[in-house]
Amino acid sequence: MLNPFYAAFLLAVEAQRVIELRLVRIAWGGAEAQAEMVSMVSEKVVAAMEAANTLMAGGTHGQVITRYRELVADNTRRLSA
To answer: Which top-rank group of organisms is this from (predicted)?
Structure first.
């Protein structure tokens, strides 16, 4: 298992790539941009609820960070296609 601080650092770096890809998609405008904005907001709400549930169920911050990194990786793959 990674050091939680290192994992959080990796999450921050990886999230920057998703932000870049999303901004490019939004900058192009049109229906894809609108869909991306709706998706972005709904994904954040779901991820926050999932994180809260994990912590309330006795999970660790490391588990939350690991899950967020999985979601970021999924978005990177989707947006890079």
So the answer is: Bacteria
